[in-house]
Every structure is written in structure tokens, then in C-alpha cells.
Amino acid sequence: MNKFVAIAGALVFLAGGYYLGLNNTPEPTVIKVESAPKAAFTSEGTQEMAEVAFAGVRTLETPTSGELIIVKDGESIQDAVKAASPGAVIKVMPGTYKETVYIDKDNITLSGVIERGEYAVMDGEGFRNDAVLYSGNGVTIENLYITKYKGNAIMGQAGNNYIIRNNIIVDTGVYGIFPQLGKNGIVSHNIISGIEDAAIYVGMSDHVDVVYNEVYDSVAGIEIENSRHALVEGNYVYNNTGGILAFITPGLPIKTCGDVLIRNNFVVNNNHENFAIPGSLVSNIPKGTGVLVMACDDVVVEGNIISGNESIGITFTDFSLASSASNDPDSDPNPNRPKILNNIMRNNGQNPAPMVRAALAAYMVTSGLDIVDTVGLDDGCILNPERFRTLGLEKYGDCEFSNTANVTSYTLPEPVPPRVKEHMDAGRLAYYGVCAGCHAYNSRMIGPPAQIIQALYMDDPQGIADYSANPVKKRPDYPEMPPQAHLDEATRLAAAEFMLKLTK
């Protein structure tokens, strides 16, 4: 772990959130400085980092106002966020902070300060749902140690131009890092373990780089879900149930997934027992899965070391794992135009999980496969197929190119406009950015599908809005919902009204 932290260095990041801690904490220290402090990923720092990490990360510079806020042990991070103006840099000193933080301001940088190996620790104590929630644009979150939350460590709710870097996340329940409905983001140099769904989950997003992270001991290491233009590179992914996943979840508002580059990762020994919430989509992932592509188009799997995954090294499949797929005709179930380039594969498929073994038995195969395509379309390609043990690739042709060296990043060179400027009403935006990650229309995710909520509440959006602010556990087959009281009543009501009108 320390190696990854050392590689990342001491750069500046951000966070936000609403506060659930004590009310009698000291006021944060606000310092006005003459020259604006720079946020993470300045052009000067990129080359130095690249020399250490052996690859560059595109720079995103968060505009700063010159306001620096210091949070000391015993003070509140949320109070600092409340006091901050857009563009502020918030430094969190080593100590333990037992709270939930929410930020809806733009260009906020939250940076934990590491002194002599001591971190700013956010501790959920086993009962708080979320550590950091952000909906602001240009948010940077760095150098935090987050542990023992029930829901999420860091969740983005429709914020663009974000950076989430150099955090250590341990045992935070459902998701480690979960940017949703965001454009132009970087998730890099984080260390994440003990997550019952996905350590890193990029949902319904565009132009995202997930690079140089270490993820282990989770159900899914890295998920790219219903997203487009994503780079997954240089990550160390091991001892998860499934290593790297790119797929479509049926029933979500965004119906497509495509242009995903999975390159130069270590995907090894992902044989952890599946401990996901029963009934969730990832609960169907067989242990021993290296790379899984389900219904996602134009996925390139290149230059990875994929080894010791006991079920299958690389799998391309349709909606076989999604029980409600037939109810979403707007999503193409096939993984179109896959490309497999120059991977190193060893000792995969040596002890398939029962469901994999049963599926392979139909082909008179019981073990030892590197690559499987259960659909077998004729638009895929692979270089040097003779090097691998394969099934279902008979129609694959030779690839027209041997590498993707021309692609350095999928982030955009300039910041994209904030989503508040897009043509999207408040209810639609809130549902997409906050609710849809747990409540798809007709697919079970962390929470019940929107169809079930519609049947329960019918013409009572106020009931949904009130419940979402102060939820209580009602059903044994679903986890307790995280409170959404950080959203104002009008936003919660608008989201509820939008959800009740959904038809697909």
C-alpha cells in the first residue's frame, strides 16, 4: 500500500458533504492568501509523477479563489465546506473525523494532510452511510483515509470535471469510489479494499480515466457501467470476485456502454468468494473472473497481465447475468466489436466456479480457458489467437492495428460546462445523478427498482421525498437506504415526481 501512496505523492484534492456529527465543534480556520493555491494535477506536477509512475495522467487544474481553510482534529470538515466559497482549498489535518460530508459548491479542493504517516481519517463507526458526497463541479478529493461506512466512501452525484486521487478506502460497504452521471473525471492512485459491490464504480459517465489504483478483497474491482469513453489503465486488481468489468445494467436511464480501453493492468488471482448483497447484479459474478464485458461495445483489452483467475481470464457475454434484461429493449444485449491485443495470460480457468463449469460443459470443456465469447459475433478481432486457450472466437478476425499508443487519456483537454447549464430539469437531474445508481427502472440494484417504488407510492411523491430524507429499513432483502437530507425538499420532491412518471 505505502508504495502506491508514495507514487502518488502529496497533491491537493477535494471533498464535500452534509454533516452528521456533533454541533459543538470549533469553527474552522479561514486563511486568505495573496496568491491562489493550485489544486492537484498542475502541468508542473504531471511530468514528475509520470517519471515515477511510468505513465502520465492528463492534467485537470481546479480553479481556486485564494481561500485556504484549515481543519484541525476536533473540528468539522462539513463546517469548513459550509464556510468555503467556490474555489476554496480545504486542508484537513491528521486526526479522526466522524461525520458525513456533502458539497454542492464548485471548484472545491479537499486535501488530507499526511504528517509522519498519519492521515486525516474519516470514520463511519459502522453506522454512517456515506463519507463524502459531492454534486459540485470541479471537485477534487485527495489524501483521505476512509473506513467503516455502510454505503459509499466517495460518491459523485452529477458533478463534472472531478479528480479523486490518493485516498485509502477500507471496508465502506457498497461502493468505494462511485462517480455517477459525471463528465471528464480522473480516478487515480487510490487503494481500496473490502467492498461488497465495486471498489471503483463509474456509472453513466463520459470521458473518465481510472488509472494506477490498487483494488482488492472486494466483489468487483473496477466497474465501468453504462458509460462511454473510459480508460482503465495501470491498475493492480487482485483477490476480488471479478477483476475489471465493463457492462450495461438494463433499466438505467443511460442505455449504452462503449469505447472502453482496458490496458496495461495487472488482473491476477481474482478468486474471492462473492459476498455481494443477494439479488444484486454483481451477486451473479462467478468467483475467478478476470475481465468481464457484458453488452458493452467497442471494448479494447490490451497489454494486460491476466493470470490465476480460476474461472475465466476474459469473458465477453450478453445479458446472461442480468435477470431483467428482457424488459429493456432499448439496450443492445451484445458486446459488439471487441478487440483483444497483446495480453499475457497464464493459469486462468484452472478451477471454474460451478455456474461456469456448467456453462462450459455444454461445449465439452471443463477448465483451462483464457478467453470466452458466449455470443460469438463476427465483428471481433484478436491478435495471435494461437497463444491462448479460447472458446467462441471462431468468427474473430485479425485486428487492423496492434496497439493504442495514440490514446493517452479519455479525459477532455478543456473542462466541460457544469450540468446545471444543461437542458435538464431538477427532477430528471436528481434522479439520474442521485437515485438511478440504486434504483434502475426494472432491474434490481442496491435498492428496489423504480417499478416497485411506483407500485408502493403511486400518486404520493411527497411520501417518497419525506422517506428519502429520513429512511428506515423496511425490507429484509434490501439494505437500509442512505439518508438524502442533504438535498433540499424541492429537489427531493422533483426527483420523486420524475421517478413516478418513469416508463422505461
Describe the structure in your own words.
The strands form two sheets. The chain has a 19-stranded parallel beta sheet that branches. It has helices spanning 2-8, 43-53, 77-83, 354-361, 426-435, 450-457, 461-469, 489-501, and strands at 29-32, 67-71, 89-92, 95-97, 101-103, 109-112, 120-123, 130-134, 140-142, 144-147, 152-157, 162-165, 168-180, 183-188, 191-203, 206-211, 214-216, 220-225, 228-233, 236-238, 242-247, 258-263, 266-268, 289-294, 297-302, 305-307, 312-317, 339-341, 344-346, 371-373, 381-382, 390-391. It is 14% helix and 31% strand. The two termini are 43 Å apart. The chain has three domains: 1-189, no CATH class; 217-410, no CATH class; 419-501, Cytochrome c-like domain (Cytochrome Bc1 Complex, Chain D, domain 2), CATH 1.10.760. 56% of the residues are buried. With 504 residues, the chain is α/β, with parallel strands linked by helices. The longest helix is centred in the last third of the chain and has 13 residues, at 489-501. α3 (77-83) links the parallel β2 and β3.
